[in-house]
Specification:
mainly alpha; 0% strand; 61% helix
């Protein structure tokens, strides 16, 4: 993922390309939001989850406990 931030002009161009034309006063806001999202995703990609099972694994374990009839 690139460390180069998205400019307001680029945000407008990408939005238009996606079929979402933006009013000119929103270009900077959209660029700032996209840049923030990229920062969060970059941080998440750096995390090492190791052998952590997906959340669905924990949900199924709780459901099994609730249906076995024991208290």
């Amino acid at each position: 993922m690139s460390d180069v931030e998205l400019s307001a002009t680029e945000a407008a161009r990408w939005a238009l390309r996606a079929g979402l034309p933006l009013e000119s006063e929103r270009h900077a806001e959209v660029a700032a939001t996209a840049n923030h999202i990229h920062t969060v995703v970059r941080t998440l990609r750096e995390l090492d989850f190791g052998e952590t099972p997906p959340a669905t694994h924990a949900i199924h374990a709780v459901e099994e406990e609730a249906t076995d009839g024991s208290l």
